[in-house]
């Protein structure tokens, strides 16, 4: 039996899965936490990988790391870390994102060159912040790489001059083009002011090196691309991930270049593309309304399903703590249609419909970039809600499938490791278990109520 290891190095923790290469069956697993915060010493990820992978990595014939995207790991001439890595959720570089966009061609030019409209998440903006606010650290910096690149380098035991990345993670930097498959040197110079050593972009199924125990090391990937690979997404498949935030992503044969910034034009882990929409408000919307109603998960679901579609005219715009898609950082939630006849059931239903409608906006934005969802997979913590499952088809207008709960990012990394071992043209096809399929008719009333409220508040915000 051939075993491979898949690593998910996320913002909060490291998860390691030991998997049977031919079938995808999980043999063993480990986990270790990361420090909290929006910056982190990369050494903490390495220590967590050693802890989570103890007794697992030495049994694997191949390993791959799927990591949190966009983080900036700056190294000096001796390959020492210059400062703690700035993570994707560190927003201090928002002014630099605005300046770079305004001074160098506007959103259309950045989208055309890199598939992205700059936001504080992306690595290019963090490099600009480093150059402006920490010139001494910037002067020391010789190489820059992403979290999964650094961990892959450590696993291989090589120098930064031999470091590798993959298409998916490179596509989140703001200085690599999914369309051409190459770095955009001009964009890096605009961000940092001089050249830096960047990791080589490896082929998706390449063996980029060996660990100290002789295991093959695959290129690794970004976390969303890892999840797509773990789920087995193909062209036309779209995943709606309902965690603290919401993520809508799918596999496409053509690159996205959305000048509105709603869709990030990432690459995937197989040679295709992974357009992605991120919303700030998803599962926490339901958590908020459960608290307001003073009920547990089961009772909340019962209340929501007891109300009719449209929630008695009650509509929630779920921008509780601002929103990223659309770009409304200072927005708050809005409830419309509240009358003396409103019930607890209506309020619960409105919360679910509002949260799902925000994700439906993501599906619409994807369709505008050429990815019409033929199949929607519902994943993430809130996908366990029976109300969410039953209401989603009517809001999305298509049937949904709910795959079994699993660590799909780590599973995708393991699949890449198995793929690199075989060297075959396509990744292995692993069964993910029984998938629940839920059907339903599109509820035009829900869509109309939500669109009216969204557009009215957008117009009001624009004039105030």
Automatic annotation (TrEMBL):
Q: Which UniProt keywords apply?
A: ATP-binding, Carbohydrate metabolism, Kinase, Nucleotide-binding, Transferase, Xylose metabolism
Q: Which GO terms describe its molecular function?
A: D-xylulokinase activity
The entry's substrate-binding residues are 69-70
Q: Which organism is it from?
A: Glycomyces niveus
Residues forming the catalytic site: 223 (proton acceptor)
Record-annotated Carbohydrate kinase FGGY N-terminal domain positions? 4-220
Q: What does this protein do?
A: Catalyzes the phosphorylation of D-xylulose to D-xylulose 5-phosphate.
PANTHER family attached here?
SUGAR KINASE, XYLULOSE KINASE
Gene name, per UniProt, is xylB
Q: Which reaction does it catalyse?
A: D-xylulose + ATP = D-xylulose 5-phosphate + ADP + H(+)
Q: Domain of life, per the record? A: Bacteria
Note the Pfam families from the entry: FGGY_C, FGGY_N
Query: What NCBIfam families does the record point to?
Result: XylB
User: What's the protein name?
Assistant: Xylulose kinase
* Cross-referenced HAMAP family: XylB
Family according to the record: Belongs to the FGGY kinase family.
The UniProt record lists the keyword Kinase: yes
User: What are the site positions for Important for activity?
Assistant: 8
Could you say which EC number(s) this protein's record lists?
Answer: 2.7.1.17
Span of domain Carbohydrate kinase FGGY C-terminal: 239-421
Translocase as UniProt keyword:
no
């Amino acid at each position: 039996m051939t075993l491979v290891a898949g690593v998910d190095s996320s913002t909060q923790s490291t998860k390691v899965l030991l998997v049977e290469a031919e079938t995808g069956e999980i043999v063993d697993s480990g986990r270790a936490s990361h420090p909290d915060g929006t910056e982190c010493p990369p050494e903490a990820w390495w220590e967590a990988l050693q802890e989570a992978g103890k007794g697992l990595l030495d049994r694997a014939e191949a390993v791959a790391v799927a990591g949190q995207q966009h983080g900036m790991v700056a190294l000096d001439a001796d390959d020492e870390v210059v400062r703690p890595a700035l993570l994707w959720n560190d927003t201090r570089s928002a002014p630099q994102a605005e300046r770079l966009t305004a001074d160098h061609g506007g959103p259309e030019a950045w989208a055309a060159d890199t598939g992205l409209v700059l936001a504080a998440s992306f690595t290019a903006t963090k490099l600009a912040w480093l150059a402006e606010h920490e010139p001494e650290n910037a002067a020391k910096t010789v190489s820059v790489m992403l979290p999964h690149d650094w961990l892959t380098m450590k696993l291989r035991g090589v120098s930064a001059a031999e470091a590798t990345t993959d298409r998916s993670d490179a596509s989140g930097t703001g200085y690599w083009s999914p369309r051409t498959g190459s770095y955009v040197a001009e964009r890096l110079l605009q961000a940092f002011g001089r050249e830096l050593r960047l990791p080589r972009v490896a082929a998706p199924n390449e063996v980029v090196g060996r660990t100290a125990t002789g295991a093959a090391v695959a290129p690794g990937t970004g976390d969303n691309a890892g999840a797509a690979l773990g789920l087995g997404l193909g062209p036309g498949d779209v995943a709606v991930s309902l965690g603290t935030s919401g993520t809508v992503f799918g596999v496409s044969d053509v690159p996205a270049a959305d000048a509105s910034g709603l869709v990030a034009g990432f690459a995937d882990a197989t040679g295709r593309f992974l357009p992605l929409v991120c919303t700030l408000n998803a599962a926490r919307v339901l958590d908020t309304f459960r608290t307001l109603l003073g009920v547990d998960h089961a009772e909340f679901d019962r209340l929501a399903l007891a109300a009719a579609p449209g929630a008695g005219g009650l509509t929630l715009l779920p921008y509780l703590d601002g929103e990223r898609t659309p770009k409304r950082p200072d927005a708050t939630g809005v409830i419309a249609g509240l009358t003396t006849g409103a019930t607890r059931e209506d309020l619960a239903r409105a919360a679910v419909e509002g949260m799902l409608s925000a994700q439906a906006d993501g599906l619409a934005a994807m369709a505008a970039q050429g990815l019409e969802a033929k199949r929607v997979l519902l994943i993430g913590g809130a996908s366990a809600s029976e109300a969410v499952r039953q209401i989603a088809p009517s809001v999305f207008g298509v049937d949904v499938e709910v795959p079994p709960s699993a660590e799909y990012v780590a599973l995708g990394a393991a699949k890449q490791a198995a793929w690199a071992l075989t060297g075959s043209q396509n990744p292995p096809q692993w069964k993910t278990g029984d998938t629940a399929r839920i059907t339903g008719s599109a509820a035009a009333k829900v869509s109309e109520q939500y669109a009216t409220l969204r557009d009215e508040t957008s117009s009001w915000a624009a004039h105030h």
